[in-house]
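We were asked to recover a plausible sequence for a given structure. The inputs and outputs are reproduced exactly as logged, with field labels preserved.

PROBLEM: sequence recovery
POSITIONS: 183
GIVEN STRUCTURE:
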């Protein structure tokens, strides 16, 4: 059997993938950096999986188009592919100061430059089953990398204004009551 085909079959049949500080649970479609979940949108996650499945090989833009969008889909896949790859790079924390995991091959495509390991069982030191993330990724919701439970604590400007007005009304009511009853 062709070694590329064998590697492809191995990478698609296994549940867990590891490279650098990243661990992936393919069944749950979750990516972790040092045990912390990253929230990747559907297409961004799919680009990562395609690149991992073909690590060390050129992944043409056409291969990504076929993997990400059905043939009859009308979409500007050049722009959308660029956006997905850029979001993936950001999520992986790539910068000009670090060695990238994703190499751009000008006018041809991309390549995964790291070394990924594949396993049917979780890697030692990881416990993705106890993650606080949901079992499935909601590919329609946009999550910023690093966003966690604290995002629920953020208040919108409108909520802050409403709270301030309520506080002022309560203070004015208390002052009026005090003046009319004790002054």
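RECOVERED SEQUENCE:
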């Amino acid at each position: 059997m062709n070694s590329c085909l064998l590697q492809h079959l191995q990478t698609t049949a296994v549940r867990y993938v590891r490279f650098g500080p990243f661990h992936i649970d393919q069944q749950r479609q979750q990516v972790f950096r040092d045990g912390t979940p990253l929230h990747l949108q559907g297409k961004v996650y799919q680009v990562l999986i395609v690149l991992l499945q073909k690590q060390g090989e050129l992944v043409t833009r056409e291969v990504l188009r076929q993997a990400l969008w059905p043939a009859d889909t009308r979409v500007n896949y050049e722009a959308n592919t660029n956006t997905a790859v850029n979001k993936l790079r950001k999520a992986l924390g790539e910068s000009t100061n670090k060695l990238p995991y994703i190499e751009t091959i000008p006018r041809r495509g991309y390549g995964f430059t790291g070394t990924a390991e594949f396993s049917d069982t979780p890697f030692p030191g990881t416990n993705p089953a106890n993650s606080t993330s949901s079992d499935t990724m909601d590919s329609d919701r946009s999550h910023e990398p690093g966003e966690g439970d604290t995002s629920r604590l953020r208040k919108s400007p409108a909520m802050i204004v409403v709270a301030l007005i309520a506080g002022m009304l309560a203070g004015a009511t208390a002052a009026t009551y005090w003046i009319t009853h004790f002054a």
